[in-house]
């Protein structure tokens, strides 16, 4: 039976505590970057186990700053996955680098380390893995490949707040990691991001680049000590987070583990209810020790068995009053990257297979078990009708 109300693909879990926190900030008279941002940065650093965390206006801003630190020159290459939101690839291009796409594992949709190693050349400056859906990539394998060749490793952890790799939270390693607080993520600040690092000099440079390159203390160090002012150490951008956002983030961070536990339960229910649906391939799980943040629940629609394409499946789900998501179309197939960085068809077979068939089902903490049952009922109903 069709649902009476629409079930969205995602919905942020915002409660009265978040609302009260925002009201407090608005009443304080200080709403831009201030004490709440500092408190959020400290709390986030403690949560992931990193000495330094820097709050930003978006995850894209974090990727921009991290890649800008590489000071890329024409011809420099950065290896990443094509199955990611365009921001990952855009920042490589806009910072003057050449994106090099490598294939992913079909079951986990994470970078295949063997393909990363094979793609490295003398021009390779960095590797940017994407922890797809909140399941950590093989970080030890990637670290070994990168460190042995003096290549930077930058983690796109947009999906991975609360994820763990071999007992350590994503963001705790000595390389840069970048997180997202977009409304569909496991925790949100409305919009926003965070970047973590273990290196103090890197942190200080990122801090300058976040806010125009201006340093008020530099005026005292290098200018006139008798005057109030500021100095510019290097050109930067305006990527700071506001106290309004940080107030939400502080509250969400306290609730994050409970929200992930709820996602885990819903994911397990999907796994159980869909295990016999032969027209779909369910998400795969890695063999090494991780805590999966369960950001997305993606399935692959086997169009030969289902008698329906992924896009048709999404339209049919909408008719059943159920929203779905598309994570992701292969970036190398998008118009700009087809023109500027063309690669032969079939060079990334797993990526292209997944890109044409993947769909994200509804998953968020406020969902009920009956909502998952409605999704599964709709799927089975659609597939039954399409095979007739």
TrEMBL record:
Residues where N6-(pyridoxal phosphate)lysine is found: 185
Sorted UniProt keywords: Aminotransferase, Pyridoxal phosphate, Transferase
Gene Ontology MF, one: transaminase activity
Keyword Transferase: yes
Active site per UniProt: 185
Keyword hit for Transferase: yes
UniProt record, GO biological process: polysaccharide biosynthetic process
Superkingdom of the source species: Bacteria
Annotated SUPFAM superfamilies: PLP-dependent transferases
UniProt record similarity statement: Belongs to the DegT/DnrJ/EryC1 family.
Protein name: DegT/DnrJ/EryC1/StrS aminotransferase
Lineage of the species this protein comes from: Bacteria, Pseudomonadati, Planctomycetota, Candidatus Brocadiia, Candidatus Brocadiales
């Amino acid at each position: 039976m069709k649902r009476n109300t629409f079930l969205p693909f995602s919905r942020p879990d915002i409660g009265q505590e978040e609302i009260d926190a925002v009201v407090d900030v608005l009443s304080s008279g200080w709403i831009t970057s201030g004490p709440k941002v500092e408190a959020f940065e400290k709390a986030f650093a403690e949560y992931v186990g990193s000495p330094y965390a820097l709050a930003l206006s978006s995850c894209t801003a974090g990727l921009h700053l991290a890649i800008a630190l590489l000071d890329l020159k024409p011809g420099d290459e950065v290896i990443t996955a094509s199955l990611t939101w365009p921001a990952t690839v855009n920042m490589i291009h806009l910072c003057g680098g050449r994106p090099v796409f490598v294939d992913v594992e079909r079951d986990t949709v994470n970078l295949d380390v063997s393909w990363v190693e094979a793609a490295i050349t003398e021009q390779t400056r960095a590797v940017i893995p994407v922890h797809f859906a909140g399941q950590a990539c093989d970080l030890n394998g990637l670290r070994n490949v990168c460190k042995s060749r003096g290549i930077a490793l930058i983690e796109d952890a947009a999906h991975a707040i609360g994820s763990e790799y071999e007992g350590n939270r994503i963001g705790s390693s000595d390389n840069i990691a970048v997180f997202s607080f977009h409304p569909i993520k496991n925790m949100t600040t409305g919009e926003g991001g965070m970047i973590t690092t273990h290196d103090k000099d890197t942190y200080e440079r990122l801090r300058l680049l976040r806010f125009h390159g201006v340093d008020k203390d530099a005026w005292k160090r290098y200018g006139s000590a008798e005057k109030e002012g500021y100095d510019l150490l290097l050109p930067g951008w305006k990527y700071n987070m506001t106290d309004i956002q940080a107030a939400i983030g502080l509250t969400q961070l306290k609730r994050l583990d409970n929200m992930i536990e709820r996602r885990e339960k819903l994911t397990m229910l999907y796994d159980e209810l869909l295990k016999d649906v032969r027209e779909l391939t369910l998400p795969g799980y890695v063999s090494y020790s991780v805590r999966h943040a369960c950001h997305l629940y993606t399935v692959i629609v086997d169009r030969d068995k289902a008698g329906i394409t992924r896009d048709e499946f999404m339209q049919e789900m909408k008719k059943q009053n159920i929203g779905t998501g598309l994570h992701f179309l292969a970036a190398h197939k998008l118009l700009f990257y087809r023109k500027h960085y063309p690669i032969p068809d079939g060079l990334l077979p797993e990526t292209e297979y997944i890109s044409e068939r993947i769909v994200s089902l509804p998953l968020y903490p406020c969902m009920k078990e009956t909502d998952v049952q409605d999704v599964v009922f709709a799927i089975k109903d659609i597939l039954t009708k399409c095979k007739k």
